[in-house]
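Entry for shikimate-3-phosphate complex. Fields follow.
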Amino acid sequence: MGHWTVNQAGKSIVLIGMMGAGKSSVGRCLQRRTQFALLDTDEIVASKFGLSIPEIFSKYGEQVFREAETEALREMGPDKQTIVVTGGGIVLCEDNLDFLKRLGVVVWLDGKEETLFERAARSGNRPLLKRGYSREAFTRILQARLPLYAKVANIRVDTSVLTDEEVAVAILSKLGKLGRNWRPGSPIPATAR
Ligand code: S3P
């Protein structure tokens, strides 16, 4: 994992991690606390197709979804200060790793496998978990992705025993944004990048 103080060109806080890590909810908490705009690759892709994510998978297949996901990420500029929420598979495309880093601080929301699995299984909205859905499949997907999350992340937060708000606070605290001088909407301090 790279050091988060030295390699950030962009201004955004970018959330990555497995399904069930809480990226969307934590993203909303971060948005409320920072007043940055919120961009979500799944939402961008869904609105581009005018379909839900499961509908895109079943109508066009995973590959088309992945291409649209990459496109959504590529179109995000490094200049705007945003909270970026990504789909769990964003790291599968090698090019995306650079696009993610270019946007700002990459935060990996991790957690105990069992906890991630339980949370992910709760929502019926995940096409990858529907086909031959099993605990083993989840493990396989997670194991393949762990090194990719680790490779691109600047910081990692274990979400297993934290609420979404607590995760947001932990992130902002790691970024130095809860310091005395920081105000919502002000830039990430230079020392935090
Ligand atoms: C996916 C995760 C989903 C969504 C799509 C594929 C994945 O997003 O992008 O179903 O490959 O892990 P979440 O991580 O928000 O569930």
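NOTE: Residues 1-8, 189-193 have pLDDT under 50 and may be disordered.
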